[in-house]
Amino acid sequence: MSKQLYRLVYYSRNRIAKDGNDFRTAIEQILATSRENNSRCDVTGALIFNAGCFGQVLEGRLEDLEATFERIQQDDRHGDVSLLAMEPIEHRHFARWSMALVSALPSDDSALTSIGLQSGFDPSNLNGDELHSVLHRLLLEEEALLAQ
Ligand SMILES: Cc1cc2nc3c(=O)[nH]c(=O)nc-3n(C[C@H](O)[C@H](O)[C@H](O)COP(=O)(O)O)c2cc1C
């Protein structure tokens, strides 16, 4: 099996009703499943969301990314899944996270605006590099905040 690492970046439209605790519960379930499955096949990455859409970066071997993305695409908790990037990488940027949740903190709203992930965002403005870089930066900022 090839050891070459790849990065996959996509965005999608949220289809989970955002009322009461249902949205939170659904996100918790997605994260729990993702962390369990991704740990098993050495996939790492990060997920960002708001009421309107998800953005996700996945890193790992090609065959593991393809199998994971196949399942993700068939999940009706989101739709219009759009692949932004699938490219070979030298090393992982999310090596410590089987699936990090970015921007769970309310104070991150302004950072979300910078990539148009607030409501009314236009996905055609996003590209894979941009989404990947912002997720990585936000995650490091959150870690620094939590460490204070
Ligand atoms: C936005 C979003 C992101 C997801 N990310 C992952 C992921 O990184 N890894 C994963 O295995 N499943 C992920 N899922 C869940 C899959 O769509 C699917 O439900 C799950 O992989 C099925 O796992 P199971 O066969 O072990 O029940 C995601 C779902 C959504 C809606």
UniProtKB/TrEMBL annotation:
Pfam families: BLUF. Residues 5-100 form the BLUF domain. It comes from the Bacteria. This is BLUF domain-containing protein. It comes from Mycoplana ramosa (Mycoplana bullata).
